[in-house]
Amino acid sequence: MTTEVVPRLSAERLAGITIRTAHIAVTSVYLGGRVWGVPAEKLRLWRNLTTATGVALLISETRHSPNWAHQGRGLTTMAHIGALLPGHVWPQLAKAAPVAAMLIGSLGSHLPRAIRKWSLLNIEFRP
Questions:
Q1: C-alpha span between 83 and 106 (Å, rounded)
Q2: Are 97 and 83 in contact (CB under 8 A)?
Q3: CB under 8 Å to 62, separation ≥6 — which residues?
Q4: CA separation, residue 113 to residues 12, 87, 101, 103, 108 (Å)
Q5: How far apart are the first and last CA of the chain?
Q6: Given this model, what pLDDT does residue 5 score?
Q7: For the chain, what are the domain ranges?
Q8: Torsion angle, CA of 46/103/23/66, rounded to 10 degrees?
Q9: CA–CA dist 123, 127 (Å, integer)
Q10: 14, 34 Cβ separation under 8 angstroms
Q11: Tens of pLDDT along the chain (127 residues)?
Q12: Torsions phi, psi of 119, nearest 5?
């Protein structure tokens, strides 16, 4: 008989999981509304919640490493946020921009560790 040790879930890890889950949930409502043509004023709450959970997630992620901004994980996050900007400048992209951001965010979240940890500045992997 083997005894398995179940790893403990730290408060920081639990907070990160909770923030990410909340961000996915509120973003799905906001994005669905954008795609289905719901008027912007009716989506204001969901947009604000998407922004708030996104900022909380950004803060949570940047705490993992001082190298975060120039690693693959930081670069994909910046691309994720940057994909939203055209929708603010050109109204005809108001639907496409959040979809692009969602695709980049999903891709970035599921990249292999080697790519997420790759450093643009030092062209090496860092913890």
A1: 13
A2: yes
A3: 68, 69, 74
A4: 20, 31, 21, 18, 10
A5: 36
A6: 76
A7: 13-63, 66-127
A8: -130
A9: 13
A10: no
A11: 667 777 788 888 899 999 999 999 999 999 999 999 999 899 999 999 999 999 999 999 898 888 899 999 999 999 999 999 999 899 899 899 999 999 999 999 899 998 998 888 876 555 6
A12: -105, 125
Rounded distance between C-alpha atoms, residue 92 and residue 104, angstroms: 20
Distance (Å, rounded) from C-alpha 23 to C-alpha 50? 6
Q: Which single residue is written with the structure tokens 């990249």?
A: 111
At which residue do the structure tokens 């940047």 appear?
A: 62
> Quick one: tokens of 72?
């693959």
Per the DSSP assignment, residues forming a β-bridge with 125 are 118
